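# nightly structure sweep
# worker-07 picked up a monomer target from the shared queue
# config: single-sequence mode, recycle default, output format = structure tokens
# input follows
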Amino acid sequence: MIDLPMVAKLEAGAKVASLFLVGEVSKLSGKTGKPYLTVQLSDNSGQLEGKVWDDVDRLFGLLKPGSAIRAEVDVNSYRGALQLVVRSVEVLPWTPELKARLLAVGGGDPDALWARLLELLEGLKDRPLGTFLRDFITDPALEKRFRSAPAGKLIHHAYLGGLLEHTVSMMELARLLGEHYNRLTPGLVNVDLLLGGTLLHDVGKTVEYDEEQGLDFSTEGRLLGHIAIGVSMLAAWQGPSRPAPAVMQRLMHLVLSHHGDLDKGSPVRPQTPEAMLLHLIDMLDSQMGAVT
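# output follows
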């Protein structure tokens, strides 16, 4: 398996069999009406666009985003870029070796990122809230998943460790922007609450993605989604540092509303300054993560 060529080593004119992670797949029609597929194929060395011209319907059923495949491809040059023409596909079960080869890993140091996350929590003025957030996030099983989970499947921070990178980046922005708006309008933003919501907004992604199946959704993730999962995790948590019901309600609102609009997946729209700012920070960091 390890002798098969990596994406970064492919050269125009080659006909190879290799291993790929399937990304976004689209079924289109050519000028004559004949269907074809475009598919993003990658490993941890890079990504290329693939085309499927023949046996389209069958291969469309096999090429599922997030799956691992062995494919025979022709490597062509098209408009100055490499393009793969897919000839055959075999779907593979995920193994540790495949995960190491196909899944990208974030560039940040996870230990340093985790230390910074805890440092930001230590800086909260509301110590009972800070204690709860630390107790919640440092549960050993949750901490392990939080440090390794992706923040997305295809669009932004879609790699192992992406959730931690995305969250810490957002917490830095939340602290800076919350303090900025409080200088303009004193008392407008509860910065501690905003930081808590930022930490928790995507915590459901620790369950939504099944890392044993690459970056695919878990059954719970497909059925419920990370927002519902995150709120249920908060509702179920019991411990001496659990905040008062009114505080927990505001934290849950931040999780529920962070996508902003109902048609974007939020069950409710942002109703507080902290919720609106969290939504905008999430959108900013997600979009910047998609272009880096």
